Structures are given as structure tokens and as C-alpha cells.
Amino acid sequence: MTSADYEPASLPDLLPLYYRRLFPFSQYYRWLNYGGVQKNYFQHREFSFTLKDDIYVRYQSFSTQNELEKEMQKMNPYKIDIGAVYSHRPNQHNTVKSGTFQALEKELVFDIDMTDYDDVRSCCSAADICPKCWTLMTIAIRILDRALREDFGFRHLLWVYSGRRGVHCWVCDEAARKLSVAARSAVAEYLSLVKGGEETVRKVVLSDPIHPFIRESLAVVERYFPQYALQDQGVLGHKESVDKVLALVPEDILFMEQIGGGPYYDYTVHIQCQYNMPLSYLLSQSTVKKGQHFEKEIMLQYCYPRLDVNVSKGVNHLLKSPFSVHPKTGRISVPIDFKQLDRFDPFDVPTISRICEELDRPRVGEEEEQVDSKEKDGDMDAVERRRIRDYKRTSLAKYVKILDQFLDGVARSNKGELLKKSDLQKDF
Amino acid sequence: MQFPGRQRKVIANPKAELYRHCLQFYGQPPLENISLTEFETFAVERLKLLKTVENLGVSHVKGSELYTNKLDKEFSNLHFPYKIEVKDDAKVGPTEYEKRRKDHISHFILRLAYCQTEDLRRWFIQQEVDLFRYRFNALASTYKTSFLQHNNLHYDTVGLEEKMVLSDKLISSSYAVSGCKVEDQDYYKVPFQDALDLVRNRKVYLKAGYVYIPNQDIIITVLNDFRTQLSKALALTARSLPTVLSDERLQPLLSHLSHAYVGQDYSIQKSIGKISLEQIDPLSGKSFPLCMRQLHQSLRESHHLRHGGRMQYGLFLKGIGLTLDQALQFWRSEFTKGKVDMDKFDKAYAYSIRHMFGKEGKRTDYTPYSCMKVILSNPPSQGDHHGCPFRHSDAELLKQKLQSYKVSPSGIAQILDLVKGMHYQLACQKYFELTHNIEDSGFSLNHPNQYFLESQKLLGGAREVKREADPPQRAPDAAVKQPPNPQPLAEMTEDLDAYFQDG
Question: How far is the CA of A299 from the CAs of A138, A270, B270, B326, B419, in angstroms?
Fold first, then answer.
């Protein structure tokens, strides 16, 4: 994937500007502080910076938003990762007795990476993405978002574009942050359907009865499958890829088709000429034995989200922070608006060079007016005010707004928490 | 705070009230005085029961008919309460009340014996949980409900209206339920964190963070509670143990009880020096279990093993009798044939070998890994050769390996069947029988070093190695045949040893 206006070599020059004038520190702090419901929640959080030449600095932690700002403006990290909330300040982890420094809480996170789909996409491979395969991420977000909300009852889900080839999900509910390792792995396994590595051909195996979760997920896949798999990816368009599909069809069904439909190649042509029909319809024309779900399994194998389970399991696992820059593409890791998910275009996500350029453009009157009433609150210092004016002038603005809206939702829950706490205290 | 209340209740109520239910959560410790003899008998018999639970769990599918039948038998042999019986009905043998009392007291005695180390606790919890599962499943459904009530395990039941709305989803969520009507079926609604096993395998309907558990699966949640409570209780017991152990009548018995689990840990130092380095190659072919043979082979081939392999193999070698000096010499000579020079070996590897022998760091004298440990913890990843070949190899590779070791095709098929059924230790035992040309090995395999000793015993090569690897507590065989020992304690523990030898 090319981002015409970005040169990796220019990153060291752009980062100082980005962290000084554009990075949304105030929202960032507001997020990780969670309304101050729990003491030292922000102060005990691990940050880790990747500096020039892949120098990796772990266990950074900060007392205040100001301290975080100062440090980031000093270090100008190429990449920022967020870790767990620990029992002690992470930057003092060496000073406490070994064994007592422990990761206590973290958002429940999910990491979906396009490289894991290489065996089922024909357009690109490895780190490359294109509009044709991005649909996979859309499907993944729809399926997981629904399940996390409806099945698990979580409410605060922040979806983030990783900056290159995948998406992350941060589940920020208090209950999610407190989940044990065992619970996280149970959730991740509940959500995983595609299993097995290079040695496994059939990676999805369904059994009767089909669980409601799988049904719901199938409904999403079915909606995208004809356009995505049959049209865009041409899954049934070439002999090679047809063979790949047929390898997933049980032997006895293939056999029956061959007798009825003539020689092997006719069979594939037969599918080809009707490829505007759902695959399920085509393949189920033969007498599908009850209890076999091969057409569903095929669709799921091609489209179902492939999670990196290990990232979700560990409480202390690090994940790239939102609004960190991807050093290779220069794109900012931005929140995704779920309401406009189908319109999200990774190629439209601003690069660091683009927003820095936008900053240099002469101001236009109407943009100035848009600076909202918040600013008039007078609570913020001059630097903060200027930073708001700065990012509002760039294409970063709409993504910061998504984070703002998300945080408003979290704040409503936090307020409830705080009330509950103070109520409890009055009891005594 | 609770003490007065509790005591009053015991005094106020008749005996039967104390054990109203045949199964219990062991929430309250027994408060009566019991004789030392009873103390011993109870403890030893429960230990036998737990040992049976363990053995059956390894060789049979838990909950299968065979498993239940055999456990049923053991229960009635050892007089533990296992099914609802009418109390007045007791004709011969102990009454139901006595059985329940024994169940109660013996559980708490073993808590004392099994709270001291992580290993002991894990073993005890595992067996008690399996035992509880079996007993709970054997209850009639009305008793299950009354048990839950009695123990304050309140799970919200789902109302008829909600059930009807979710009907389709409830039916398609649980294999067990399909076929019967949702309205006749009781469902419980609990937070998903309390039924992770059901969530993980998608065996339950999940909505808004709650799982809807059909009546028959509630056992999972109950077990979850049982395990958590037991684990907490053991941690507390461990703290107050020093007081108990200061009683010199109890100290030897408790320590013997805890040593008795899985027989022995194969760390006994007396076998040391019985093996020369030249013997290792021939022994690896004849008497090493497959996991160690595999490690030995890859060590000889690549002149290196990664950490997991060095630990698993190094401790095994220590267990069969290598001294620290021999071990250093062995690893050094092999590693320096590869990419590691003398200097690097001494800097990077010698430390960890001395560590294994308890000469560095915490100075823990590490014990060889048991089969359970090899199978369950630290699975091998890229570049690793450790683990259990029956658990961690692809079926095809395992087959090739067995072929190259000249195992017959029918033998290979039997082994692969066991592997498929996840009976890895039985598969290994089958491998033992096939490679030693015997019908029935007559022991139950749970330790690589046990494999080695049994093999040596059969091959008649090192009879004295076997003898000296026995626990020191065990007196010579002759002692058992001597006239009745005046000390009941010694007799009882002799008995126990004999039991585990047979196990």
C-alpha cells in the first residue's frame, strides 16, 4: 500500500510537530484516567515507546497528563504501546520486591490482522491491503461488535484502525478491564471459529445444533459473501480457487455431483455461470445430508474474523495505542466510527505528513468558527486551547471527535460508578 | 464472631442435622474430639479413595459407565456415603450418619496434609473436584436442588416467559437439551465469569453477559465454586499449619500422608552414582520412555537442547542417578561438540545445571518432572523437543517414529487409538508393554522415572537401583510379614505404602 505523500525518512522531522501541536493528549488522558474512579489508574499504567532504530523502552509510566506530554515531546516515539495497569508504578518496577509487581487490569483487547487471511484472499498478501480485501475487516468488526455487546453485555467498544493492515478493539467497560486471564481466554475462544494451521485444510467444523452465536455471525457473513467473495475476490472465478473451495466439500457430495453433473470441469463451470447466487444455494442443490453444514463452513472459513488469541488472553500484553503513527505507512492509528463502518476507507486515513501540511495552510474563517463552545469554558490553558485549534484544522479532527463521543459514553458509566461509591461510603 | 452461633447449633441439633445432606461443601470444620486411631483410619481411607479417583481418571473417561461403576465399588468398600440411602436401613456396617461423618472429618484431615506445597494442593484439589463431580452427578435431581439450597448456592432460575422468548436459542445452545421441551427444563442464569468452561466451548446460551445454564450443566458452576472455595481454604490452612504440626502425635502422620500421593517423586538421592555416562546411550534405547529417548536423540544430533528440554531431560537423568559432576561432564561434552565452546558453556549453561541440583539460587533440589507436568505444562514450541511425544506430536510423525523403533503395525494402531482418546499415559504404557514384550505391565504409569525403574526391573539389570529408589519410610518387605506391629500408626502407613505400590 502506498501513501503518495508520505516518506518514512521524514518521520523524525514530523514527529516533534505532531506531538507538540496535534496529538490529542487531553482526550487520551481522559480515556486512560477513567474519570478517576479508581485511584492511580493512570499512574500505574504501562506505556512503552519504540524509538528510532527499534529501540524499545518498556515500563514507562506518568503521574500526570503534563508529565506524559513532556516525555512524549522529548522522546518523540515512533510507536506507542499501551500495557496493563499494574500494582505499582511501572517505572519503579525494579524497586519493588520481585513477585509483587503484577499486572492487575487492562482493557479486553482484540487484534485482527489481514496477514492471517492470506490463504483466503487473492488480491494481496502479507502486509498489503486493498479495498477488495478490506471487507474482511468490516465483517470482522460487525461480527465481534455484535457478540461483545449482545452476548457479553459490554457497552464501550473502541474500534481502531492499526495504521497499516488491521484493526484493534478496546473493550473499556469496567467489567472487561477486570477480567481474569482465564476469562479473557474463554471469551477469545468463544469468539474463535477458524482453527488450525498449515496442516489443516478444513479450518471450520460445525456441529449440530448450531449455536446462536454462530447463526448470528453467519447472517453477517451471508450478507457480504456474494459481493465480497464471489464478485470481488472471484472465489469461483478461476480453476485454482474453485479447487480450493472444492477441497472443503465433503467427498460424498462431490461424488454425487460428479455423477449428476458430468465430468469434473463441467461442475465448476456450472457453478461459475451462476455465481451471482449464494454459494450456499448452489451447493445445497444436491441432497445435502442432514447435519452437514459444509456450505456454511466454507463461507466462515473465507470470511470469519481471525483473531490473534494471544493478544486477547494476556493482561500484560501490549497493544499499539490509538493515535500512534505507523512508521511504515505514516498513517495515524485512528478510531473507526461504527455507525459509518461500511464507508470507512483505510486509504482515506490521514498520514502524519498530510496533517502536518494541513497545519501550515492559511486559516480559513469558517473553520475558526467551528471551534466549539467547550473552549469558552475557560478551564483549559492556552497551550491546550491552541492544540485544539490546531487539530481542528486538520483531517485528524473527525477522528478525535469519534474518540470524544466514545469517551462521553464511558464517562456516563463512570459517573454511575462514582455515585455508587459515594453512596456506599454514606452508608457507614 | 461466628463461633458461638455455630457451636450452639451443633449442640442444639440432633446428630443427623449436622449432615443433613449426603454431599457437602465442607464449609465447617468438624468440632468434635476424635481418637488418634480414627484420625489415621479416616485419613488413609480417604487417601485411598482419592488415589482411586486419580487412577480411574487417567484410564477411563470421567463419567463413563465403567468409571462410575468402579468408583461405586470403591465407595462401598471404603464406606463413604455415595448415594442417598434411608438412614434406618443400615443393617450391617456403618450407618449413613457414620459414613457422612467420616466423609467430613477425613476431608479436613487431608486438607492439613495437602496444604503445604503448590504441587500437593493442586493434586488434592483436582482429586476432590473429580470426586465431587462424580458424587454430585449421582444425586437425583431433587437432591441436587436441595443440596444447592442447603449450601446457599443461589442461582437465579429463568422465568417461563423469558424461557419461551428465548426458546429457539436455548435449544440450539446446548446439545444436551435438544429434544426436550424448554418449558419443562430448568435454566439458571449466572454471570458468564462463573461458567467459563461452558462459554469457552460455546455449550451454553449467552446473553448480555449472563449464561443460561440448563439444569444438568449447573454442575460446572457448582464445581467452579467448589474449586474456588477449596483453594482459598487450603491457603488459609497452610497459614495455621505450624500450630497443628507442633503436636508431635500428628506431625509424622501428616507428613507421611502427604508423601504418599502418587507414591514418590523420584528424587531420592540413594540411586546416585549407579549409572556411568557410557551406559546412557544403550539405556536410552532400552529403558528410556519415548519422551526422554527423543530428547536424548536430538541432543546427540544437534548437540544442543533448549531450556525446556534441558530441564525435562536433565532432571530425569538426575533421577536415574547421575551425580552433579557427571551431569556437568555429560552436558559439557555434548554441547561443546556443537556451537558452544568450553567458555560459553561454563558461563551460560553450567549455572543452570548446578541450579537443577540445588546448588545455586534458591537452592531448591528440583524433582524430576512427572507425566502430568510434562503433558500439561509448558507445551513445546518452535525448536523445542521436550513434552510428551504422545501428546505433542502429530499422529503421522508419531507413527513414523514408532515404526522406526520397530513397533508392530497392530501395536502402533493400538497406541494411536489411545492417543486419539487422549490417554497419553496409557499410550506410553502400551509402548512400554510392546517394547518389553509383556502382556500387562502391572503398574500404572505416571512418571518417566517410574518407566525407567520398571524397565530396569524387568530387564533385571539394576535390581538394586529399584530397591533403593523406594521411599525411605518403607521398611524392608520382611517387616510386613512380621508379627503384628504394636504401633498402629506404623502398621497403617505400611499398609498405605503397599497400597500405592500396587496402585
Answer: 15, 19, 63, 59, 32
Task: Give the HSE-up count for residue B449: Cα atoms under 13 Å, Cβ half-sphere.
Answer: 28
Confidence of residue A320 (pLDDT cuts 50, 70, 90): very high
Scanning B164-203 for CB atoms below 8 A from A yields 168-169, 171-173, 175, 178, 192-193, 196-197, 199-202
Q: In one letter, which amino acid is B94?
A: P
Long-range contacts of A180-186 (CB under 8 A, 24+ apart): A180/B193, A181/A313, A181/A314, A181/A315, A182/B196, A183/B192, A183/B193, A183/B196, A184/A108, A184/A312, A184/A313, A184/A314, A184/A315, A185/A309, A185/A312, A185/A313, A185/B200, A186/B192, A186/B196, A186/B197, A186/B199, A186/B200
The residues spanned by each domain of chain B are 14-148+222-257, 153-219, 277-492
A336-385 pLDDT tens trace? 999 999 999 999 999 999 999 998 887 665 444 444 444 455 556 777 77
Element (H or E) spanning A319, and its range? Answer: strand A319-320
Q: How many Å lie between the alpha carbon of A111 and the closest alpha carbon of chain B?
A: 19
CATH code 3.90.920.10 for A3-113+156-189+307-427:
yes
pLDDT of residue B467: 41
Find the largest Cα–Cα distance for chain A. Answer: 82
Calpha distance B305→B308 (Å, rounded)? 8
Set of chain A residues whose Cβ sits within 8 Å of the Cβ of B394: 199
CB–CB of B305/B385 below 8 Å?
A: yes
CA A130 from centre of chain: 17
Q: Quick check: ipTM above 0.90?
A: no
Contact B178 A209 (CB under 8 A): yes
Asked if the bond preceding A209 is cis, omega within 30° of 0, the reply is yes
The letter for the amino acid at B128 is: E
β-pairing, B156-157 vs A319-320, is: unpaired
Under 8 Å between Cβ of B256 and B474:
no
Q: Which three cell numbers stand for residue B50?
A: 482419592
* Type of residue numbered B89: D
Cβ <8 Å between B197 and A186: yes
pLDDT band at A207 (very low <50, low <70, confident <90, very high): confident
Q: For residue B342, count other CB atoms closer than 10 A to its CB.
A: 10
Distance of CA A290 to the CA centre of its chain: 37
Every domain of chain A and the residues it spans: 3-113+156-189+307-427, 194-303
3-state secondary structure B461-502: CCHHHHHHHCCCCCCCHHHHHCCCCCCHHHHHHHHHHHHHHH
Sheet of B210-214: strand order equals B156-157, B187-191, B210-214, B205-207
User: In this structure, are residues A101 and A61 in contact, taking their beta carbons and an 8 Å threshold?
Assistant: no
Provide the CA A62 distance to its chain's centre, in angstroms. Answer: 26
Contact criterion met (CB < 8 Å) for A187 and B199: yes
B 391-420 residues with CB < 8 A to A: 394
Q: How many CB atoms lie within 10 A of CB A101?
A: 17
A55-60 vs A45-51, strand pairing mode: antiparallel
**Contact indicator for A355, A395 with CB cutoff of 8 Å:** yes
Q: Which amino acid is at B455?
A: S
**Which residues on B lie below 8 Å from A186 (Cβ)?**
192, 196-197, 199-200
pLDDT digits over A250-282, tens only?
Answer: 665 554 444 444 334 334 434 443 444 445 455
- Residue A399, number of CB atoms within 10 A of its CB: 24
- Which pLDDT value is given to residue B446? 83
Q: Which residues of B touch A199 (CB under 8 A)?
A: 394
Domain B14-148+222-257 fold is Transcription Elongation Factor S-II; Chain A (1.20.930)
pLDDT of residue B440: 81
Supply the pLDDT for residue B470. Answer: 42
B107 touches B23 (CB < 8 A): no
